[in-house]
Amino acid sequence: MTGTPEFHQRVISDAGAAVRGLTVALGERLGLYRALAETGPLTPAALAARAGIDARYAEEWLHAQLSAGYVVRDAGAGTYALPAEHAPVLADPDAVTYAAGFFTALKALYATEDLLVDAYRSGDGVGWAEHDPALDTGMGSFFQPTYEHRLVPDWLPALTGVPGKLAAGGSVADVGCGVGHTTLLIARAFPEATVHGFDYSEEAISLARQLAEEAGLSDRVVFDVAAADDYPGTGYDLVTFFNALHDMGDPVSAAQHVHKSLDADGTWMLVESNVSPADIDTQTPAARMFMALSAVMCLPVAVAQRGPHALGNHSGEQAFRAIAEEAGFTRWRRATETPVNAVYEVRP
Fold this sequence. Notes:
Elements: H1 4-30, H2 32-39, H3 44-51, H4 55-68, E1 72-74, E2 79-81, H5 87-90, H6 106-110, H7 113-122, H8 134-155, H9 162-167, E3 171-175, H10 181-189, E4 194-199, H11 202-214, E5 221-225, E6 236-242, H12 251-261, E7 262-273, H13 285-304, H14 317-326, E8 331-337, E9 341-347
Parallel strand pairs: 3-4, 3-6, 4-5, 6-7
Antiparallel strand pairs: 1-2, 7-9, 8-9
C-alpha cells in the first residue's frame, strides 16, 4: 500500500501518460519519430522543415517528448535526438517492438466517452461500428508487428500439420480479420492456399480490400462482411481467430460455427490475450493495459451484440477451453505464447 501523496503522484503520472498518448499519435502520423531516427540530432526548426510542420509546434512537441524521456537534448547545440534503443519502439513499423501505432486509436476510444457513460448506466454496449475507423487502423497497427514476426515463422509451425496443408493448397478462414493484416500474411506465405477474411465491420473490410490491392494479393484473397457465427464455407483446413473471440457476444455460437466449418482434420487457431483473472492484481504494464482496454472497448463491444456472454479480454484459458468443449471440440493445446498472446490449437 502507498500513502496518499505517493498515490496522488501515481495518478498524476497516469494523467500525464494519458495526455502524452496524443503527442505520440501526432508523432506517428506526422512522421516525427521517423525523421529523428533517420536524420539524427535536429533542432526544432530542422525537424519542422524535414517533416513539413510548423517550427513552433515542433519545438513544443519536442519538449513533451523530452519530458517523457522519449528523446534526449544537447542543450548546447539546441538539438534533439531519438536514442537508438527507442527507434524500434517509436519509429520502425517493421520492428517487433513497434508500439507507436497503438496511440492513433485513442481518437476513437476517447470519442466514445459519452456512449460509455450511457452504457455503464444502462447496461447496454458500444458496438465496434460506433467507433471512428481509427480504432481499426490503430488496433491493427498495435498487433501487426507481433503478427509480422511471429505468425508465419513461429505460430503456424507450432500447429500440428498445418503448414504442410497450406503449402499443398489448403483453405483458410480468418475470422474477425479486421483490416486483414493476418489474412494477407498467410496468403503471402502460402501462395497455393485459398484464403478468406471475414469481419462484421464494413469499414474494416473496405480497408482490408484496399490493402490487398496494394499488396497485389486481391486475386488470391477474398474479404467479405460476415459474422463469426455465419461466415460462409465448409471444409476449411484452418480457421483463425486473432484476439477476437473475447469481443463476441455469443462466443459459444461462434465456436460451434467454427466446428461446423472445419474439415474433420482441421484446426482452429485461437489467439487470445495472454492474461487471466489472476492477473487483475499483478499491475504489470501489460495487465494494466489489457484491463483498461477491456473496460472501455472489449466488454462494451461484446455487450452490444446482446449475446449470452460478455467475456472481457482477460477471461483466461479455462474460460476459452470451456467454450470450445461446449461447441464440440475434443482436443485443446496451448501451442505457443508470447508475453502478450497465447496461441491455442483447438481440434474436433
